[in-house]
Amino acid sequence: MQGFNPWFFLAPMLLFVFVSIVMCIAFRKRTSSMMAYSRCLNIAVTHERISIHELADKCEMTEEEVVKSIEWGKRYSMPITIEDGYFVRLADLSAFQKGTQAVMYLVICPHCGHKNQQGVAECENCGASL
Fold first, then answer.
1. Contact, 104 vs 93, CB < 8 A?
2. Could you say which residues of the chain have pLDDT below 70?
3. pTM above the 0.90 mark?
4. How many structural domains comprise the chain?
5. Do 116 and 94 contact (CB within 8 A), yes or no?
6. Coil, helix or strand at residue 85
7. Is 55 domain-assigned?
8. What CATH number is given to the structural domain containing 26?
9. Rounded Cα–Cα distance for residues 27 and 41 (Å)
10. Which domain range does residue 24 map to?
11. Is 104 domain-assigned?
């Protein structure tokens, strides 16, 4: 019988910890970007039409990030678009009709991630201003 080799047990454990840390960082970054997109769209939909540049200033983001936010919202069937460098809201989001069924959009709190109904001024979960 050979002597005990601690690396036989330690190496897989270190690999597992390293992979776990990398996955946590990636998940946090993805969640953070989705929260930023949601916050930007919350600001954008309060306007019927606003320039991408002005929206970037209000959201404290780059213009490229604002465009990504709008594209993200469009993927989820929000009635919004970009025309000639302007964000354009195509319909009243709170009363947007799809066929005969009303569609209610949720506003995600940028602080805690709670999904609130559109139109509320404060988060139902943490009370932060939306």
1. no
2. 1-2, 29-32, 92-105
3. no
4. 1
5. no
6. coil
7. yes
8. 1.10.10.10
9. 21
10. 8-91
11. no
